[in-house]
Amino acid sequence: MPSSKTVRDATADASPKRTPRRAAPSASAKTPAARTASPRAPRKKTAPAAAAPQMPDQGVIDAMVAEAAYYLAEKRCFAPGYEEQDWQAACEQIEAQLRAARNPLR
After folding, report:
1. 68 occurs within a structural domain
2. Tally of domains within the chain
3. Cα three-residue angle 78-79-82, rounded to 5 degrees
């Protein structure tokens, strides 16, 4: 019969080994944002509070007027002789739209 010491050693080797417990994550590492943020991380830049819209250049304004004049002429079925009136009306419409964009509270 084997000695009791030998049986104990054999059973101790047969038992599964325990893995050491990992330390619990710190409070700052629980959220993804907290893991990536560091105290030296640059802050996001914010846009100015009341940035005024920029005026389009003259070429863009002329294209807008030409398109508006085309649609005014289309309403009249392109009847000849009203080209200047369509252009003037289109200019007034575009100028009014640009003024409204610059001063939205008016």
Report:
1. yes
2. 1
3. 100
Which two structure tokens, joined as six digits, stand for 94? 């575009």
- Residues belonging to the chain: 106
Q: How far apart are CA 9 and CA 16, in angstroms?
A: 14
What is the DSSP secondary structure assignment for residue 30, as one 8-state letter? S
24 occurs within a structural domain: no
Where is 74: in which H helix or E strand?
helix 58-75
- Domain extent, residue 87, equals 58-102
Per-residue pLDDT of 69-90, as tens digits, reads: 999 999 999 999 999 999 999 9
Coil, strand or helix at 57: coil
The overall pTM is greater than 0.70:
no
